[in-house]
Amino acid sequence: MSRVKKLIRQEILDLSAYPVPDASGMLKLDAMENPYSWPAVAKEAWADLLTDLPLNRYPDASAQQLRDGLKESMGVSDEYDILLGNGSDEIIQLLAMAMAKPGATILAPEPGFVMYKMIATFCGLNYVGVPLTSDFQLDEKAMLAAIETSQPELIFLAQPNNPTGNLWDQAAIENIIKASEGLVVVDEAYTAFTDADHLELLDRYDNVLVMRTLSKVGLAGLRLGLIIGRAEWLNELDKIRLPYNINMLTQASTLFALEYYDMLMMQTEQLRVDRVVLMEDLAKLSGVTVYPSEANFVLIRTPDGMARNWFEELKERGILIKCLDGGHPLLENCLRITVGTTSQNERLIAALSDIAHSGTVQ
Ligand SMILES: *Cc1c(COP(=O)(O)O)cnc(C)c1O
User: Fold this and answer.
1) Pick among 3.20.20.140, 3.40.50.11290, 3.40.630.30, 3.90.1150.10: CATH of 3-38+262-361
2) Which one of 50, 156, 227, 256 is least enclosed by Cβ atoms within 10 Å?
3) Which atom of ligand 1 is the closest one to the Cα of 85?
């Protein structure tokens, strides 16, 4: 046996790395990025700011100013703390590390965000995935039964859910929180694209934290995620946060971007408007089911056996989306499309109409 195989944990050897496809020159509609950039004046002011940063110094370890700014922008009350991560992925990892007692379990509905399971594996926790119903709602009975049996330390509920895009029944969510002896993290990565807001759960339950990210509102390149909740929880997580995990460029750039928060929110508003148009246009393709979305992406089901073919055909036309077929039994024939600018969406629809049409002619 090679030394590598002997030394590395078996569950790591069994993993394949998170796949990030090469997208050079492509129209990227695969990763829920905001398609808009900043006006030239804003870019210049930002560049000036960066020029003066003392890169020879460590960044502010507590990122106090940034945390205060985020609390204000997001309307988080002073009772609650906020902890920052290098993307919310890092926060999921902090939570898992903090709870990785022998035999500890993470539970999440499926299909869901793949990092919950991957990070459970990285950190040596058990993972339990509970299937959603066929219309992607929570299977409350199955969830409660799984909680009873596996007594998870940590439950992730993404609202809206990725990759399905929908919200779940609020009563079911609260019943899960009440039934859980563990911590329930409501992952609001797509909070900017929905009116739903779960911050008020913090007032009523001491086993809830709310996680957010700036990735989906136009700052994906900066890698900044946050988790909001009672100091009692966040103080413990803060102990295992690596010092200086939020670098100086990210701190300064995000603080700068918060001055343009209204602009980011206007872009978001435009994406919400265009989401409706995109969904209507997708629904006109014959044999396509479009699922309700409260996020900046749309899940569709193609006619039987067409998802991979449409994905490849789009790629040949320079458009990258996400093919979910084969990822989970409930996602058979499914594709996920990020909402782009009005003209990007039109380009996608034109290409898809062409592909779907030539498919039926053959
Ligand atoms: C995108 C996403 C995240 C992670 O975002 P970061 O870029 O790591 O902040 C977390 N949860 C869900 C459900 C997501 O879709």
Assistant:
1) 3.90.1150.10
2) 50
3) 9
